[in-house]
Amino acid sequence: MQTLSDLLVDSKIFADREVLSPHYVPKRLIGRQKEINQIERSIAPALKGERGRNLFIYGLTGVGKTSCVRYVVNEVTAIPGTKARISYVNCRIYGTRYKVLNKIISDHLPTYAKRGFGAVDLYEKLTNWIEEDSKVLVIVLDEVDMVKDLDDLIYTLTRINSDIRAGGVAMIGISNKVSFKDSLDPRSLSSLYESEIVFSNYNANDLFEILKDRSAKGFRHGVVDDEVLRFIAATSAKSGGDARLSLKVLSKAGELSEDSGQQKLTMDSTKEAIKLAEGDIVYEVVSTLPEHQRLVLYSIALLTQTGGSYKKLTDGTDIYLFSGEIYSRYKSITEGLHKEPKGERWYRKYLYELQMQGLIVAFESGKGIRGHTKLIKLLYPPDKIRSCIEKDVFGVSDKVPG
Question: Which single residue of 48, 52, 199, 390 has CA 20 to 30 Å from 76?
């Protein structure tokens, strides 16, 4: 067992732990130059004092959306004399229109933000500040779909451009959910005038190169070999191409090796780190899902473990489920909880959102299966999914109906 004195001694494993954090923005982003260039083109007008188009960025969790935007933001802040001003807002923390406006004011007029003014006062102060010397304010809304009154926020921010004579506002929205705009009011939607970027998943080679780059800076020389990095990359690629998961596994494998007094990362410590990291990632994602999405995911986990009236499909390793049976199980569980099940249109949307979160994969059935249906595969161990949902939604000791 490590003592406090042990912890104060320089690590024999790590050189710089911060480099292994998913929040660290490296000087070079691997496999994302095209997307970075697109973000730069979108933000370029603001650097010249012109109003840019709004930009919305979509993709699965852990595919580099936030890192790329932060990378470009860092570039902008390093340019002297630009009229562009940046506000980065984490909408998971600032989840209402008022909180977003207050955060923007805090970034640029901190004294005013502390006075407790209402949303109208903040709006007027913001428009006057932009107009006074023709600034262009670029607002990055990370996890924009988490804003509770999103219609009001988008309408308010786009309205600024109509109410000022000089300067302007441009938004960059980041979301795991391509379909989040479906719920917007037509009034808000028509005012957006946006372009879009969809980030594809990382493949095993991309993830290996990312891990190779980070491990060279994060670990001491000779601690990590390519075999371990390729194993982590292949495992993460199979689970949806999540770079966050890859980095978490790499960091945990280092901690486990250090705790056991080893000089290198071993395959045993890496496999154990994968189990621990998957649990952390699953809990982080599942805990943010709306109730009915969780119930659909819970149904998938149950059927993956137990099967049902249809025969489970398997290729010897992975289990695939029929969409129809998942919906039937979801209805059964929901009714057992004395709730109203959502219709099939909403159910299809939930499947899509779960896929965008990197929790499942879904694809149309091919030849050899009667009828036309969608096949679903869970990307994480079903026992971990069940544990998260039973703990957060139903209570640890509750018996779930269905």
Answer: 199
Which CATH code fits 33-199? 3.40.50.300
How sure is the predictor about 78, in pLDDT bands with cuts at 50, 70 and 90? confident
| DSSP run (H or E) holding 157 | helix 150-163
How far is Cα 352 from Cα 114, in angstroms, rounded to an integer? 41
Is residue 366 packed enough to be buried (19+ CB in 10 Å), middle (13-18) or exposed (0-12)?
A: exposed
For the record, the structure tokens of 225 come out as 């070999």
DSSP 11: P
149 near 95, Cβ under 8 Å? no
The string of pLDDT tens digits covering residues 314-369 is: 655 678 899 999 999 999 999 999 999 999 999 998 998 888 777 888 887 655 55
Per DSSP, 225 falls in state: -
pTM: 0.78
Tokens 């970027």, residue located: 197
Question: CA-CA distance, 297 to 242, in Å (whole number)?
Answer: 19
Fold assignment, 202-286: Helicase, Ruva Protein; domain 3 (1.10.8)
Residues contacting 178, CB < 8 A, separation 6+: 58, 198, 352, 356
Ranges of each domain in the chain: 33-199, 202-286, 291-394
Cα torsion angle, 293, 295, 299, 302, sign: positive
Q: Kindly report the backbone phi and psi dihedral angles of residue 139, in degrees, each rounded to the nearest multiple of 5, phi listed first.
A: -105, 115
CATH topology of domain 291-394: Arc Repressor Mutant, subunit A (1.10.10)
- What's the token pair of residue 25? 């923005």
pLDDT in tens, 36-46: 999 999 988 88
363 — phi, psi (to 5°)?
-155, 155
What is d(CA 189, CA 151) in angstroms, rounded to the nearest whole number?
8
